[in-house]
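hi! just following up on the protien thing from before. the input was this:
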Amino acid sequence: MYDFAIADKGDRTGPYQPKTLGIEVTDAEIARRCGLGVIDPQHGAASEPDAETAIEAACSATVPPAGSRLITIRADLDAIGAMAVLAHRHASLLIDAEMGERIARIALLDKFDLGEWPGARPLPRTPDDIQTDGAGVELAAMAAAVSDRTVSTAERVTAMRTWLRSGTVPASHAHAAQQQAARLMRSLKLGATRVEADATDRVAIVVSIEPGALRLGYRLAPVVVALNPAHRFADGARGRKFTLARWAEGDADLDSAVGNLASDESGWGGQRGIKGSPQDRPSQLDLSKVVAAVRSSLPEGIGGRSAA
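and the predicted 3d structure came back as:
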């Protein structure tokens, strides 16, 4: 039906690909080579709070012809979910109410607008504590499945199709979230993952290479600056990758923060509730500078503009 792939160095430097569709491809060089265009309404209209997610857009987008190549630069629930929806529709299958509800759950999670922040809590002490955060156990298991680099992208799409259609987490991935939580817990105990609040107690700083580490920051503050010091980029390079996220709409003006950072380093961007440093290369900015930019985006009177 389709060839599914995570974009790599060849997608940045290779020829124009007439039968390639990009899904959440924010790397301009890769997007330019996608002959079927790019499904990425959130990043293309980042200033719109109600912009669709990729998985929502896939429900009505033109279905690519058989033999097309579907690529993404981020193997997450939204992007892999969008691939699964397109494959489902290509098979002339309808999206029923239950599948629509699961799509909506992914979309809500991906939009990073979670309502009122529940307040500060202690950092987790066990892997089970980590699994109760954010998405819940079921979506956490699927998030681990679609980010599992030990299996092919096609297998990840199949796992997502199975869950979207039946609500069943594939047996091969049933324990993936538990294993991921255990790795993160181990990293936290060893000090390889660091989580701390800044002086305002409104911004949490997370430094980790582990998937899912960003959400630990929400235990300390409603706005998170996460740094992966060894992120793997499409060209194979490894280096610093920042992610900025906020719990709800009023917690920080991330558009403002990214505007300030982009004046020093081009390529910063993202959707309304979650932003990031350039997708195609390691960031050269200091963590302190990024944190300062985020602090300046806080509401007035909370370490933000009026306190700057």
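The CA atoms of residues 140 and 305 lie 36 Å apart.
The chain has twelve helices and ten strands.
cheers
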